[in-house]
Structures are given as structure tokens and as C-alpha cells.
Design goal:
The complex is a heterodimer of chains A (292) and B (234). Chain A is mainly α and 292 residues long. Chain A has helices at 2-32, 39-57, 60-82, 91-113, 139-161, 163-173, 175-180, 185-207, 220-233, 238-258, 264-278; strands at 128-131, 134-138. Chain A has eleven helices and two strands, in the order ααααββααααααα. In chain B, the strands form two sheets. A six-stranded mixed sheet of chain B has the order 6-7-8-3-9-10, sandwiched between helices. Chain B has a four-stranded antiparallel sheet with strand order 2-1-4-5, covered by helices on one side. In chain B, helix 3 runs parallel beside helix 6 (136-148) and helix 7 (166-183) runs parallel beside helix 8. Chain B starts with a strand and ends with a helix. The relative contact order of chain B is 0.19. Classes of the chains: A mainly alpha (292), B alpha/beta (234). The interface between A and B is medium-sized, with 22 and 31 residues. Magnesium ion (MG) binds next to helix 1 of chain B. Chain A: Belongs to the binding-protein-dependent transport system permease family. LivHM subfamily.
């Protein structure tokens, strides 16, 4: 039972990170109808930028801010310089371009930083406190929950309470009508990519201390887990992405706890295949027809 | 009095094939001009070319002294031009209230939606409903209300009567007449429903195969039996 509780909290902590990263995928999907397969690589690039700043200044937080701000800029740049010029009449084009970006980003990072793991510092202890004699949560887990909770709250406020959020939603649903109403649709798209990449980079910063360290491929499992979470949630649904992230986190924790850590990545892939075959629209999608 | 909107020799189309050929027209402040013509005549294309959704190939479009070519679509509304597209263009995923707010989001200070709800009480009762939950008539009111929220000087309306009961169509026409008389609104009104369009319009023009084949005051057009038979089918 103690073990089950421990694994549950571990799963929720991982799941919160997957939720944030899945949310980033959903943001871009909603804004541009593209699954951003380059998001993992973009988050790695941002994390390396943060790593360099932390090394140079000795401050984790300066590095953290650099990574999130770097993600923001990188997201805007990817939209402005690359994605805007992709012919989106076939959805495959965006995917191919994103995969090309992955190769470029990982190649460049490999040239600059080398392909070995760089140990990454955590801002808080990862040792769990004892609660009722069971080690359940670490300070780092609390930091993860707080960071992801803040991101979810801020995004919710942005999209439901602010004029910019309304513009972003309208631009995504009905670009031509939005233009006629004075919405700068291109700018909203850039903003969507920037925000999504910043959230993805934040998730990347959160995941690095829980893994072997920083490496050009460090976000591969994060990407696959979060993609599964996003698909589980319906790709279109921010709530679905968060719930999906938590579900995938729990699944991974239980599988690695009871069956062994090496089986975990496979379990995610199996879940992804099951979801794609069984409920390709996800558990949270609403059937809706665009009429106007 | 010089025209608010002055169009000269406008040619536009999709890809290589021009749809509009050498179209000239003008709309004055406080004037409703009806654009009539059979299906495929190019009425929608004309409005799209005016609001910039479709780039013009040739011709001059001048609005209150401003050359509109080179003005981006998203800037048009700031200059006072509102376009209600064919099929209404309600954002179906947003609520009535959000749709209306979208119409005046660029204005400073941002007006409340109360004035529009006064104009369309039916919308006030549905302010929290999503666009796709509305009836056709409600959507049309929403699209027009949203355009009016921008307080435009020129309204481009594409088939507001499409799919509406005659009574609602008549209400909309009465509203246009009222806005014209009260606020000096200029309207370019595309309609299949020739009778109701000519009942409020001051002038009309008839498009056929992308060309203006007739331009006259509304009463004269309504009385021209040959023209009606040839181009308007009744
Ligand atoms: N997106 C498009 N691409 C290519 N051709 C188009 C497009 N839209 C319209 N056309 C063509 O342009 C011509 C004029 O179309 P338009 O929609 O302007 O007609 P309309 O007068 O508005 O007709 P309706 O009364 O049926 O709405 C038609 O021949 C149509 O086939
Ligand atoms: Mg039309």
C-alpha cells in the first residue's frame, strides 16, 4: 500500500510535467492544426540555453528564466521563419518540416555541446519527506505542481478573460472573419507558437533534473508521453491534455514501479496505439461541425 | 457631394481567371446601394475584393480619400468598413457575447455590447449561447450586430436575407433604413431577394458575369421589366 501511494505521488509529479508539455502541443494544434513534432527538440534547445546561463552565473533561476524566455523567442521564430511558409493544404507537410527541424536542432546542439549527458541541477531537493512514515513527496515535486498549476491558471485566465485570448481563439477558429473584425491573425498565430514553446520549455526544464541529465535527445520520452497524453485528451482540449498528462504519468509510474523501468516507454507506446485505434478523437473531444 | 466609396475599373478573380471585369460604382454617405444579379454573377467576389479578402488585379478603390489597395484586411474595420460575409461568419465556437465583443475589440475605449442588445433583444436572451446553438435568423442578427459594434461608416452586407423568414428579412431591411437615416450609414447590400433589397435601396446595380450591366435608382430598376426578365429572373 505504501508503495502504491509512493508510486501514485511519483506518477502525479511526472504527470504534471507531461500535462504542461501536452498543453503546449494542444495550444499549437488549436492555433495552427499542426502537431509540433519539433517541440521536444525546441525544449532541449531552450534547456541548453538555460544550462549555459546557469553555468556562467551560478544561478539556477537565471537559467530557468532564460530557458522559458528562449522558448518563447524560439517558438515565435519557428512560426515566423519556417511554419508560415509551409503549404498546409496537406497536413503531412507540417509534420515533415517539424521533423526536419528536429534533425537541425539536435545536430546543432550536438556540435555545440557534444552528445554526452550534462548533469543538470535541481533547484530544490528531490529527497522525499516522510509523511506518516512513508516517503511521498519531495520539495522538487511541490515545485513541479506549483509551476504547472501556475501555467494552467495563467493560460486559463489568458484565454477566457482577456481580449488577447479572445482574439487568439477567434483567429484559430475563423481566420478570415477575424481579419474582417480587425484581428491581426498572423500575429496571433506567432503569439500562440511563442506561448506554446515557452510552456514546452518550462516542462523541459522541469523534466531534466528527474532524468539522467541534459542531452540532445533528452526530451524524447517526454515528447512521446506528452503526445500520448494530448491524443488521449483529444488534441483539441486543454482540460483533456492536463487529465491525459496525469493519466500517462500514473501509468508510467505504476508500470516502472511494478514491472520495471525498462518496460515503461513501451507501455506508453502501447497506450498510444490503443488510443489511436480505439478512440482516435480522444476521450474528451466533442463532436462539432464547423459551419460558418 | 463626393462619394464615400468610389470604385473604378475594378478587375479581380481567383487565380488566372478574372471574375469581375472593369466594375465601377460609388456609394455616398447615407445611401444604400443594392447589388443584384444571378447566382455566380460575382456579387460576393465584389465584396471580397472591396474588403481586401481578395486582392484586386486592376482598378481603383478609394474610401473617403484613402486608396484601399495596400490596406490590410485587418485594418479595414479601423477605417470604417465592416463586411458581413456570405454565410454570416458567426464564429460558432464562441458565445454570442464573445462574438459581439470581437466586433469592437480594437476600439478604445471598448464599448459595451448593451447598444447592440438593445437593437437585437433576441440576442440579449442568448448572450451566453454558443454560435452554433443559434438559429439562422439569430446568426444573421449576430453577424450584423457584430459589424455594427464597430460603428462603421460603410457596411458591406452579403445576402442578409439568405434562409430567413420574410418577416425577419423585413425587420433587417427596416433596420438598415433606420441606421441610414439616423446615423448616415452607407450600405452596399448584396441580395438575391430583389424586391426587398430595392424596397430599401436608394440605388441599385445589376451584375452579370462580373460586369455591371445596369446602374440606376431603385425605383427605376424595380420598374424595368426587361431588365428583371433578363438578369434577375422574375
Ligand atoms: N474561391 C473561388 N475560387 C474560384 N472561383 C470562385 C471562387 N468563388 C467564386 N468563384 C467563381 O466566381 C464566380 C462568381 O462567384 P460569386 O461567389 O462572386 O457569385 P455570387 O454572385 O455571389 O453568387 P451567389 O448569388 O450564388 O452567391 C462564379 O463563377 C464562381 O464559380
Ligand atoms: Mg454570393
Amino acid at each position: 500500500m505504501d508503495r502504491f501511494l509512493y508510486l501514485t505521488f511519483d506518477g502525479l509529479s511526472r504527470g504534471a510535467i507531461y500535462a504542461a508539455f501536452a498543453l503546449a502541443l494542444v495550444l499549437i494544434w488549436r492555433a495552427a492544426r499542426i502537431v509540433n513534432f519539433a517541440q521536444g527538440a525546441m525544449a532541449v534547445a531552450a534547456a541548453y540555453a538555460g544550462y549555459s546561463v546557469t553555468n556562467a552565473t551560478g544561478s539556477y533561476w537565471l537559467g530557468f528564466i532564460t530557458a522559458v524566455a528562449g522558448g518563447l523567442l524560439l517558438g515565435a521564430a519557428v512560426e515566423r521563419v519556417v511554419m508560415r511558409f509551409v503549404d498546409h493544404s496537406s497536413p503531412l507537410n507540417g509534420v515533415v518540416v517539424a521533423l526536419g527541424l528536429v534533425l537541425i536542432i539536435q545536430g546543432v546542439l550536438g556540435m555545440i555541446y557534444g552528445n554526452e549527458f550534462r548533469p543538470a541541477q535541481a533547484p530544490f531537493s528531490r529527497d522525499a519527506f516522510q509523511i506518516g512514515g512513508v516517503a511521498l513527496l519531495s520539495r522538487y515535486d511541490l515545485f513541479v505542481f506549483a509551476a504547472v498549476g501556475t501555467v494552467v491558471a495563467l493560460l486559463t485566465l489568458l484565454f477566457t478573460r482577456t481580449p488577447t485570448g479572445l482574439r487568439m481563439r477567434a483567429a484559430a477558429f475563423a481566420p478570415d472573419v477575424s481579419r474582417l473584425l480587425g484581428v491581426p491573425v498572423g500575429g496571433m498565430l506567432t503569439l500562440g507558437w511563442a506561448l506554446a514553446a515557452a510552456v514546452g520549455s518550462l516542462a523541459g526544464m522541469l523534466v531534466v533534473p528527474t532524468e539522467l541529465g541534459l542531452h540532445p535527445n533528452a526530451m524524447d520520452l517526454l515528447f512521446i508521453s506528452a503526445f500520448t497524453a494530448a491524443v488521449l485528451g483529444g488534441l483539441d482540449s486543454p482540460v483533456g491534455a492536463v487529465v491525459g498528462g496525469l493519466v500517462v504519468g500514473l501509468l508510467l509510474a505504476y508500470v516502472s514501479g511494478y514491472l520495471g523501468a525498462t518496460v515503461a516507454p513501451m507501455a506508453v507506446l502501447i497506450l498510444l496505439v490503443v488510443v489511436l485505434l480505439g478512440r482516435p478523437d480522444g476521450l474528451f473531444s466533442k463532436a462539432k461541425a464547423r459551419t460558418a | 457631394m463626393s462619394a464615400l466609396l468610389e470604385v473604378e475599373g475594378l478587375t479581380a478573380g481567383y487565380g488566372a481567371a478574372a471574375v469581375l471585369h472593369d466594375v465601377s460604382l460609388s456609394v455616398r454617405t447615407k445611401q444604400i446601394v443594392a447589388v443584384l444579379g444571378a447566382n455566380g454573377a460575382g456579387k460576393t467576389t465584389l465584396l471580397r475584393a472591396l474588403s481586401g479578402l481578395l486582392p484586386a488585379e486592376r482598378g481603383r478603390v478609394v474610401f473617403d480619400g484613402l486608396d484601399l489597395r495596400g490596406v490590410k484586411v485587418e485594418r479595414m474595420v479601423r477605417h470604417g468598413i465592416a463586411h458581413v460575409p456570405e454565410g454570416r461568419g458567426v464564429v460558432t465556437e464562441l458565445t454570442v457575447d464573445e462574438n459581439l465583443r470581437l466586433g469592437s475589440l480594437w476600439r478604445k475605449p471598448r464599448p459595451s455590447n448593451d447598444g447592440i442588445y438593445e437593437l437585437f433583444p433576441a440576442l440579449a436572451r442568448r448572450r451566453d449561447h454558443l454560435g452554433h446553438q443559434l438559429s439562422g435568423g439569430e446568426r444573421q442578427m449576430l453577424a450584423i450586430g457584430r459589424a455594427l459594434a464597430a460603428e462603421p461608416r460603410l457596411l458591406l452586407l452579403d445576402e442578409p436575407s439568405l434562409g430567413l423568414a420574410p418577416k425577419i428579412t423585413a425587420q433587417i431591411m427596416a433596420l438598415l433604413r433606420d441606421l441610414r437615416d439616423r446615423t448616415g450609414l452607407a450600405v452596399l447590400l448584396v441580395e438575391q431577394n430583389v424586391r426587398s433589397a430595392l424596397s430599401v435601396a436608394d440605388e441599385g446595380l445589376v451584375l452579370s458575369l462580373g460586369r455591371v450591366v445596369s446602374r440606376n435608382d431603385a425605383a427605376t430598376l424595380a420598374g424595368d421589366a426587361d431588365l428583371r426578365h433578363a438578369y434577375l429572373g422574375f
